[in-house]
Amino acid sequence: MLDPRGVLRQRPSIEDISAQYRRMQQRVIELLDQALGPMDWTVVEPESPRNCTSFPGIAEAESRLLEAWRSPRSITDDDWPRAMGIVRSITAEHGFEPPEIVINRSGDHEVTGNDTYGAVYSFGTATGTELSVTTGCHLRAARTA
Predict the structure, then answer these.
(1) Tens digit of pLDDT for each residue in 55-103?
(2) Would the pTM count as exceeding 0.70?
(3) What is its main location (predicted)?
(4) What are the distances in angstroms from CA 96 to CA 61, 72, 117?
């Protein structure tokens, strides 16, 4: 059985992985804007800590909900496959598995994706479009050394 602290020490620090996922979010937003026109994204939820339920008893393990982004524009059913191509491509570059469909009906779509560290993103459109990322459990940079 692997030592949980050893597993965490092998992962990127919470600072590094958060920065990587923020770049991923920004790239998705940029490409959606280029492909579908300006979407006027705004932050609807600030970055905040989350519990590390996958590493119980390790108080120094951290997880974060990164800033959640929202556009007042919905993505049309015709544009949804194009938007999903962008999301799938960019998230795969950052180590995420192919997205899983949560909702897929006319005018209402949502997918989630996971990576090997337990991070999850959510991307969806109905009355607007939203993108959020929650990290998996990681240690601060000072604790990974």
Answers:
(1) 988 999 999 999 999 999 999 999 999 999 999 999 999 999 999 999 9
(2) yes
(3) membrane
(4) 21, 26, 9
Cα–Cα distance for residue pair 129/144, rounded to 1 Å: 36
Q: For 4-143, where are the E strands, in sequence order? A: 42-45, 48-50, 63-65, 68-71, 100-105, 108-114, 120-126, 128-134
Is residue 117 a contact partner of residue 16, using CB atoms and an 8 Å limit? no
CA distances for 35 relative to 29, 30, 32, 59, angstroms = 10, 9, 5, 43
Query: What is the residue range of 116's domain?
Result: 4-144
Confidence (pLDDT) at 144:
53
DSSP secondary structure letter of residue 19:
H
> How far are the Cα atoms of 3, 10, 12, 39 from residue 75, in angstroms, in the given order?
45, 39, 34, 9
At 84, which CATH number?
Answer: 3.30.2030.20
DSSP lists the bridge partners of residue 110 as 103, 124
Return the H-helix or E-strand segment holding 145.
none
User: Tokens in use for 47?
Assistant: 């970055």
If one counts the domains in the chain, the total is: 1
